[in-house]
Every structure is written in C-alpha cells, then in structure tokens.
Write a structure and sequence with these properties.
By secondary structure, the protein is of the alpha/beta class. Helix content is 43%, strand content 17%. Keywords: FAD, Flavoprotein, Oxidoreductase. Pathway: One-carbon metabolism; tetrahydrofolate interconversion. It catalyses: (6S)-5-methyl-5,6,7,8-tetrahydrofolate + NAD(+) = (6R)-5,10-methylene-5,6,7,8-tetrahydrofolate + NADH + H(+). This is Methylenetetrahydrofolate reductase.
Length: 289
Amino acid sequence: MYRTPREGTSAPTDLLHDFSLEITGKDADALSGARAAIPAGTRVHVTYLAHEDLALRVAAARTVRRLGLVAVPHVSARRLGSRAELDEFVGGLRADGNAEHLFLVAGDPRTPAGPFADTLAVIESGVLEHHDVGRVGIAGYPEGHPHIPDDVLWRALEQKVSALAERGIGASVTTQFGFDADRVLGWVEQVRQRGVAVPVRVGVPGPAGARRLLSYATRFGVGTSASIAAKYGLSLTNLMSSAGPDRFVDALGAGYDEHRHGELRLHFYTFGGVGATAEWARGFRQSVG
C-alpha cells in the first residue's frame, strides 16, 4: 500500500514524526488490535458522534490511555444540551487523567441543542480552566467550509487562538482532510501570515477504497476534480480501487518549508480502518527511514 518516495526527500519523515490518529468511540477494540503498529505516546482523537453517548466516549478515552497512547477527546459544541453536560463530560475525562488534551468542534447541527453556538462559546465558558485542560485543538479548513464564508472562518480561527492564549491554554489547529497538498500548504502559509503561530496538523485520509474516500469528500466539501484525484492516486472511473496517501505525503514533504509553514505534523482520518492506517504509517516511515 505504500511506496518509496522520491529520492532525496527527507521531509516526509519529519512530518510523520508525532503524527496523530482519529477514531470513533466504537473503534476502541480495533485500536487495541492495531497497537503494535502505533508508536507509544501517539495522540488519538476520539470523535463526538451523535449516536455515541458520553459513557462510550469516556470509555474509549480510557482505552487509549491504557494502551500507552494520549487521548484527545472531541467536544461538539452544538450537541451539548447544557453547561452541566459539558462539565460532566470534561470532569469524567479528568477523573481518568484524560482532560489534558481536548479538540473542539462546532458540530453539524444548524441549531444548538443548548447554550453553545460554537467552539468559542465553549472556550469562554470557564469549564476548560476549571478542569485544568492544558491544550485545545481547533479545526482548520484549507478548502473552506460548504456553509461558512471564508472571512468568517478566518475571523473565528484568530478569535479562538487568541481566547485560548488569554486563558493560558495551549492551542493547535487540525485541518479537514484533502487531496491537494499544494492547496494545503498555501493555506498554512496564509495562517502564518495572519500571525497564527500554533502547531498545525494536516488532515490526511488513511488508505481506503476510492468509493469511500470520494463519499467522505463529497460530504465535507473537499475538491475531487479529475486532476486532483489523479495527483492523489484516486481513480474516478474505478471506484473499486483503493488509494493510500503516499503521493500526498510525498508532495507535502517536498513543498514543506519550516520557515514559511512553521510546525507541521500529520493527522490521519482512519476511513479505511485503524489497523490499515497504522500499518501504512509504519511501512511508510520504514521506507523513508
């Protein structure tokens, strides 16, 4: 599934150092099975899905910690029914030692279930400081958002980073996945030009079938023109094929300039399964090591 990148390319190895993974609450068993391929201390995001309850999310984070990995539970602002629900969730994580790192998303619902219209409202609630949250990740959108204008996205990014800094909470940005490395690098450069210097994790889809990758891309408004798909290694005419992120990571590494792009790492969306993604990352690191 992986290939040796272009001769002389060393940056992919740097980008793969300290990569992160994303799982759902129900993926905890799969994570256990893939543990041998995942470096100790790897950050593992636990998503906040509507059909998974608080207990399942807390239990998944507990499994991540038991496996010697670092849990990064997600908090979906618009899905929270009350401030008390946020307090209960973060408090439950803290009791297990899993509240040091959180990732905040607004969530899909157009109408909030409770008092939090967006992630900034969660940051300003005071709950994070109360539970000694040390670092918070926020979302970035290199290809924009299908329902939010670009100027609103930029303003929100700057406001959230500023609000976290005011509270003494570390920040990082994790991007939506995409297939165009040049576009991602251009967006990161704009982030730096706006004075946002926090670490950025570039969202990368793990190896998966073409049909599944294109389905997720459509859902999240990710560009899949014929030229971009071909550059990534996706076939728009053979949906039974599969693709890994080899070409994307190679291109990202070739274009990465620490002076222009700052601290950059990779974040894998495990669309094709936790095990497949972990094995790909291990194989790719060995092939460029």
